[in-house]
């Protein structure tokens, strides 16, 4: 875990959260106008900082209403011996643990089992929450959203390798010979941490 002064993206994310929460609770039309102006300014700043078109920046928080909270992502680690199940993302051609956003009405354990099956073709069930981290405290590339990442150890139940609309390959790799990883989704040290939990199930859950 690393600590650092807030980056520009973190500051902009905080301003967006204040504006979104303000819009959720204010009934004053002048305040609404000010909060909406803040959102437009944040989108303009992201356009410059991330080199994305203005329309794309404006869509980062499209549909986000109510009190602003972090997003929740799950990742599932399925091991067979010293090999871990990875899927290759179509979006960047790199590998990651299966996972994604938690859907409304899904328990995290259900969400990770669903993501594993959808992205890899294998069926599994969550057996341990190994780590719960704040993404911004770890050396992932910057992201517009504030994200909590839940890492589960999962037991393989069956199935066979299959592709999805998000992934184009699934395979088991030795933890000491990993392919190029999609670092926005998973870091090598996180896989190493999960393997330690696999070898020592009594380890306490890691968290930020």
List the helices and strands and how they pair.
Blueprint: H1 8-25, H2 29-50, H3 54-58, E1 71-80, E2 83-89, E3 95-96, E4 99-101, H4 108-120, E5 122-134, E6 147-159, E7 167-174, H5 188-199, E8 206-207
Parallel strand pairs: 1-6, 5-8
Antiparallel strand pairs: 1-2, 1-4, 2-3, 2-7, 5-6
Helix pairs in contact: 1-2
Task: Characterize the structure shown.
This protein is of the alpha+beta class. It folds into two domains: 8-61, no CATH class; 71-207, Alpha-Beta Complex (Nucleoside Triphosphate Pyrophosphohydrolase). Helices cover 34% and strands 28% of the residues. The chain is built from five helices and eight strands. Strands 1, 2, 3, 4, 5, 6, 7 and 8 form an eight-stranded mixed beta sheet that branches. Helix 1 runs antiparallel to helix 2. The chain is elongated and about 60 Å long.
Query: Radius of gyration over alpha carbons?
Result: 19 Å
- Low-pLDDT residue intervals, each spanning 5 or more residues: none
Q: What is the typical, i.e. mean, pLDDT?
A: 93
The fraction of residues in strands falls at 25-35%
Total E-strand runs = 8
Shape: elongated
> Number of domains in the coordinates?
2
- CATH fold topology of the largest domain: Nucleoside Triphosphate Pyrophosphohydrolase
Question: What structural category characterises the helix and strand content?
Answer: alpha+beta
N to C succession of SSEs:
HHHEEEEHEEEHE
What is the level 1 CATH name of the largest domain? Alpha Beta
Q: From the coordinates shown, what is the CATH architecture of the largest domain?
A: Alpha-Beta Complex
**Sheet with the most strands?**
8 strands, mixed
Q: Roughly what percent helix?
A: 25-40%
Q: How far apart, in Å, are the first and last alpha carbons?
A: 8 Å
Task: Figure out the total of helices.
Answer: 5
CATH superfamily of the largest domain: Nucleoside Triphosphate Pyrophosphohydrolase
């Amino acid at each position: 875990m690393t600590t650092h002064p807030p980056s520009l993206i973190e500051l902009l994310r905080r301003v967006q959260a204040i504006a979104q929460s303000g819009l959720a609770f204010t009934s004053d039309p002048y305040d609404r106008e000010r909060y909406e102006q803040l959102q437009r300014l944040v989108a303009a700043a992201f356009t410059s900082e991330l080199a994305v078109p203005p329309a794309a920046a404006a869509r980062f928080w499209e549909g986000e209403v109510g009190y602003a909270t972090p997003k929740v992502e799950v990742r599932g680690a399925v091991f067979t011996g010293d090999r871990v199940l990875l899927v290759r993302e179509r979006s960047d051609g790199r590998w990651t643990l299966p996972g994604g956003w938690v859907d409304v009405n899904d328990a995290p354990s259900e969400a990770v089992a669903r993501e594993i099956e959808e992205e890899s073709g294998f069926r599994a069930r969550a057996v341990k929450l190994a780590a719960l981290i704040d993404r911004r405290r770890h050396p992932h590339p910057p992201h517009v959203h504030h994200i909590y990442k839940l890492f589960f150890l999962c037991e393989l139940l069956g199935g066979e390798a299959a592709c999805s609309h998000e992934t184009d390959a699934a395979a088991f790799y030795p933890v000491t010979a990993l392919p190029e990883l999609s670092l926005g989704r998973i870091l090598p040290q996180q896989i190493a941490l999960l393997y330690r939990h696999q070898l020592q199930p009594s380890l306490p859950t890691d968290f930020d």
